[in-house]
Amino acid sequence: MATSRAILSLLQGCNSMRKLHKIHAHILINGYQDDPCISERLLNFCAVSVSGSLQYAQLVFHRIHNPQTPAWNSMIRGFSLSPSPLQLQAAILYYNQMLSASDSRPDTFTFSFLLKACEQVKEEAKCREVHGFIIRLGYDRDVVVCTNLIRSYAGNGSIDTAHKVFEGMPVRDLVSWNSLISCYCQAGLHEEALRMYDEVRISKVGFDGFTLVSLLSSCAHVGALHMGAQLHSFAREKRFLENIFVGNALIDMYAKCGSLASALSVFNSMPKRDVFTWNSMIVGYGVHGRGNEALAFFERMLMARVQPNSITFLGLLCGCSHQGLVREGVRCFHMMSSEFNLEPGIKHYGCMVDLYGRAGKLKEALQVIRSSPFFQDDLVLWRTLLGSCKIHRNVEIGEMATGKLVHLGSLCAGDCVLLSGIYAESKDMLGVARMRKLIQSEGIKTTPGWSWIEVSNQVHKFVVDDKSHPDSKEIYRKLEEVVHRASLLGYAKEGSEKSLVEESESHPQDYSYYCRERENCTSFHSEKLAIAYGVSRTPEGTSLLIVKNLRVCRDCHSFTKFVSKAFDREIIVRDRVRFHHFRDGHCSCKDYW
């Protein structure tokens, strides 16, 4: 007869359901099915192990007489780890049954697993209900439970509540701090995440790789190069640079903050590299418009016997598009499937449309859309084509792309502005008026534009005609000086008073056009305010990095070129599409964006 110790030993070494079935048979034959230690160990393997079976776990569980908390925890945990929404809901159902049909009570593990399920299935109401029960049972002082509560609220979009839970914790460990920082990052609240940096240092809980990766990710998003460099120094001092995830985050941060030389330095110093390491460099070269370097790095990647993935080719196609390398881009696109068995996705087709469109090959771009598996219903492809029509002033295909967006019910203000610009450059002011009327009649909302700039380790955000900054008066005085000095070198605002008068005289039936455009001409886009602030608050010769959420307009592009020459500064602008490096009156994009 097998002893209970022998059976527990067998369960400890079990690594497959086939073995488990045999062990279960021994348990039944020897009458150990009611032994709590054995039944719970058996259930835990079935419910939690990667080799287990939730279906078999349910059979085992329902044969346990009066299951105790560990058994309930195994079931809740098993279902909370599932990617299936139905099985995640089952975790919540088992918790409800635990409260209503047994004398068992939840513990730290119960709440942790349950809150994970609430986070995954977006059950905020259940999360709040559980929070109340946590308080009643006194678990609101448990650091593990509160940390999972923070994640669950954040996953349900309740960042403020998550922060309140964090503030109410009597004790916070590093995992708690990491969780809140990560929640801010995932919610896109990168300024808030970076503000936590000083608080973590004051708390003296230390840092680990997870802290650094989250903070570096936020630095990358907002263009906080100086803070990113400080984190790099800290990582070097604390010997975190051997962590491949920290290294990859550093490369991504430097590349997105406009410093490819620093990104390359980190890459070259890394003892180990994976596909994400190589991709960070290739994508970095791509968004900076340095397609040739991206292609050269790709060759190095292949020589290092690293298998590329779909992200690799997005970086290559992006670089080819921005540099006008049509032949090389087409070769990369076909190489995906022919040499690496990778199926091009919607983003790859979008890059091909952009590649042909920027090069003026609009018919080829249209053919890519029609031959793609996404032809019928993807608005990104048609929107990309419309942007290319704006560059090359093609009214016919621009109207076709807009018509398709209308058909898909996805027309936005940006699309109308693009087509309006095409009409304006074709001197079709009636077309311009139709677009403006469409925006007004349909109530189409524009996406608010904003710009970030880092000055003295603080990130400042501006919107158009922003008056909210504490130094607003100083910024506008400086902007007047900046505009004046740029004008002395030849800068003239696009849509100037003279051109507006001429256009209004050419179609007097729409005097409101003149009024609206005159208002636009006297406004200041967010990047102009950011540039003025940067010029006023940094030493002469200091490079400025501006991060925008929208594509830079022609006027701001022209303005920044003249400012870079007037003040002898490098100004780097990262817009929604690519990087622009302005120096001595020229831009790295060569006015090709």
Short description:
By secondary structure, the protein is mainly alpha-helical. The chain is 66% helix and 5% strand.
What does this protein look like?
- With 593 residues, the protein is mainly alpha-helical.
- It has helices at 4-12, 17-29, 36-48, 54-61, 69-80, 85-101, 108-120, 124-136, 143-155, 159-168, 174-186, 190-203, 209-222, 225-237, 244-256, 260-269, 275-287, 291-303, 310-323, 326-340, 346-358, 362-371, 379-392, 395-407, 413-425, 429-442, 472-488, 497-506, 511-521, 526-537, 554-566; strands at residues 450-455, 458-463, 544-548, 571-574, 579-583, 586-587.
- Strands 2-1-3-4-5-6 form a six-stranded mixed β-sheet, with helices on both faces.
- Helix 31 (554-566) links the parallel strand 3 (544-548) and strand 4.
- Helix 15 packs antiparallel against helix 16.
Features:
593 residues, 31 helices, 6 strands, 5% strand
Largest sheet: 6 strands, mixed
**Total number of helices:** 31
- The value of Rg in angstroms is 29 Å
User: Can you count the beta strands?
Assistant: 6
Helix content: 55-70%
Helix/strand structural class: mainly alpha
